[in-house]
Design brief:
The chain is of the alpha+beta class. About 35% of the residues lie in helices and about 20% in strands. Strands 2, 3, 9, 10, 11, 12 and 19 form a seven-stranded mixed beta sheet that branches. A four-stranded mixed beta sheet has the order 20-18-13-22, covered by helices on one side. α3 crosses α4. It is globular, with a radius of gyration of 23 Å. Bound molecules: flavin-adenine dinucleotide.
């Protein structure tokens, strides 16, 4: 993939600088949980590219999985996770996360999260793939909103913790093979270099690489692409989980219609009003997500209709309105009464299982860089994520990363300084303009058509050729807008995804190849597709050039203070 090591040119000699012990990229559940683990004597800066409330975490609906009922056990939760993961989970990671989950949920309660309560206990619900009721939820179907409200409020009260919103992380800084901070652009206030003893990446997923997605616009895979450029290993990028039922009203934002709706008895019907799930799987509407998503895809192809319908009309209207207030509110905006009208839905990209490889403590392969949450690949989800296991992963790995990064920062006695890094990108030809909006739309549409729910070699090779072509002319340029950098990151991530999907010649979990429809343990049992670090990774080719004139700026006299930015 032809690409620059950094998306923009800069020179540490004439940049603004900011220093912090720990830098956290992303203010979702993974990032803020990590930041809250950093002890008061260390400074932690959290940067987020939008408002602090804009993250996948804030939109989470169903809840957080954790064993709480006496009828349930850790063994059950481990087993359910392993079954969903289809032979690719790391068992030790699963055990660790499952056992840690109840403590993390208690911590959220201590920080003020108001989970839904029944008979004086936290109410527990059940979702597809779970053998027991073990999912805590809040505000009915707006768990993420409530959890993030409490976490953000707690974070804002920590004197050692600073949150910068509207701050786009363009790239991770590396020097002598270590991650040393990030190049960030603060909205309306220019670009600066943030130097940190340790960096935690918690920038979330990349659902926006598809035209149909449940993810908010911030999910453009920036952290995955930046880590790749910086030389960290990524893996499992072929595993994008599609949610079967995303509201499909032309022109509206795509909104997830929770699996719990089918859990409460809703039917899926085709455009002719016929139920199609009983013929597709004995579990009918309650079959696993990937099975339902593929059945919907095939029904849409057979009927030549762009969506199918969820039907709740046979259910008790009072229960429907009590249980799904959020979904009801959104549908009302489009004149749909969920107790009566059929709700148009189709599958959409929901959760990126792959990402930056981390070890059991959250370390990436790049020294100085940690990763937590959807940006990472911890081995918890294997080839298919069990519902409600991702918020808990963000909490557990956020804690691990925060603790590990804090210990490493404390042990680092070198002090903080600006390092001799610079990166020049040649200016473009005068008339050479890139239509960012058009290319972004083309990429997102291509991914739905050629790298969607059902894949085959022919379509994947076509996707590969197109993405490769776009990468060749878009990645070498220096762009200066958020939309431009996001496009470059989406292209980078798309290319890694298509490569991985081509290489895995079997069907497993969320990855379905119609030309290799069976799971093939003989060739692929337990094997992961690893994307090697970018070939252009590394520091500026000749860091010594100019380094002599670049004096490190000591922590005691920062070049810039936060107030100035
Ligand atoms: C609609 C929906 C419903 C879901 N429901 C559930 C559920 O019920 N249970 C469950 O377990 N999981 C659920 N998930 C999945 C879960 O919400 C996510 O996997 C999880 O929240 C990811 O957390 P995170 O901290 O890794 O990333 P996010 O919460 O997405 O946070 C990423 C952060 O990084 C920031 N960021 C991104 N790029 C940059 C950049 N370049 N510079 C600076 N900042 C950047 C973002 O602005 C954001 O602050 C759901 C997801 C969606 C979309």
């Amino acid at each position: 993939m032809s690409a620059n090591r950094y998306l923009i040119s800069f020179d540490a000699r004439d940049a603004f600088h900011r220093f912090t012990d720990v830098l956290v990229v992303g203010a979702g559940i993974g990032g803020l949980r990590a930041a809250l683990e950093v002890p008061p004597e260390l400074s932690v800066l959290v940067v987020t590219k939008d408002r602090v409330t804009e993250s996948n975490s804030s939109y989470a609906q169903g809840g957080i999985a954790g064993v709480r009922s006496p009828e349930d056990s850790f063994e059950n939760h481990v087993e359910d996770t392993l079954v969903a993961g289809d032979g690719l989970c790391d068992r030790d990671v699963v055990e660790m996360v499952v056992r840690e989950a109840p403590r993390q949920i208690e911590q959220l309660v201590e920080w003020g999260t108001k989970f839904d309560v029944e008979d004086g206990e936290l109410a527990l619900t059940r979702e597809g793939g779970h053998s027991h009721r073990r999912i805590v939820h809040a505000l009915g179907d707006s768990t993420g909103f409530e959890v993030m409200r409490a976490i953000i409020a707690t974070a804002r009260n920590r004197p050692n913790l600073t949150i910068w919103d509207d701050t786009f992380t363009i790239d991770l800084l590396t020097h002598e093979g270590r991650c040393a901070g990030a190049v960030v652009a603060r909205n309306g206030r220019g670009t600066l270099l943030v130097w940190a003893k340790q960096v935690i990446l918690a920038s979330g997923g990349c659902g926006m690489v598809y035209r149909e997605t449940t993810n908010p616009p911030v999910a453009t895979g920036d952290g995955m692409a930046a880590a790749y450029r910086a030389g960290a290993e990524l893996r499992d990028m072929e595993f994008m989980q599609f949610h079967p039922t995303v509201l499909y009203v032309a022109g509206s934002a795509r909104y997830l219609v929770s699996e719990a709706v089918r859990g409460e008895g809703a039917y899926l019907r085709d455009v002719n009003g016929d139920r199609f799930m009983p013929a597709a799987d004995p579990r009918a509407e309650l079959a696993p997500r990937d099975v339902v998503a593929r059945a919907i895809f095939r029904t849409m192809e057979r009927t030549q209709h762009p969506n199918v319908y969820l039907d709740l009309a046979h259910l008790d209207p009072a229960m429907v309105l009590r249980r799904f207030p959020g979904i009801n509110r959104v549908c009302r905006k489009f004149g749909l009464d969920i107790t009566r009208d059929r709700v148009p839905v189709r599958p959409g990209a929901h959760y990126m299982i792959g990402g930056v490889t981390v070890d059991r403590e959250g370390r990436t392969t790049l020294p100085g860089l940690w990763a937590a949450g959807e940006v990472s690949s911890s081995g918890l989800h294997g080839a298919n994520r069990l519902a409600s296991n991702s918020l808990i992963e963000g909490l557990v790995y956020g804690s691990l990363c925060g603790r590990g990064a804090a210990e490493a920062a404390r042990a680092d006695t070198r002090g903080l300084a600006a390092l001799p890094v610079r990166y020049p990108i040649p200016p473009p030809d005068a008339d050479d303009r890139l239509d960012v909006q058009d290319l972004t739309a083309s990429l997102r549409s291509l991914m739905v058509r050629k790298m969607g729910i059902v894949r085959d070699r022919t379509r994947l090779l076509e996707a590969h050729a197109d993405v490769d072509f776009w990468c060749r002319y878009a990645l070498g340029r220096e762009l200066d807008t958020r939309a431009g950098w996001e496009l470059q990151n989406l292209l980078t991530v798309a290319r890694l995804m298509v490569d991985a999907a081509l290489r895995r010649e079997e069907s497993r979990g969320t990855h379905f190849r119609s030309d290799f429809p069976d799971r093939d343990d003989a060739h692929w049992g337990g094997r992961r597709v690893v994307a090697p670090p970018s070939e252009s990774a590394g520091d500026f080719p000749n860091p010594a050039a100019g380094a002599d004139r670049l004096k490190p700026v000591p922590l005691t006299s920062p070049a810039t203070t936060e107030e100035e930015f």
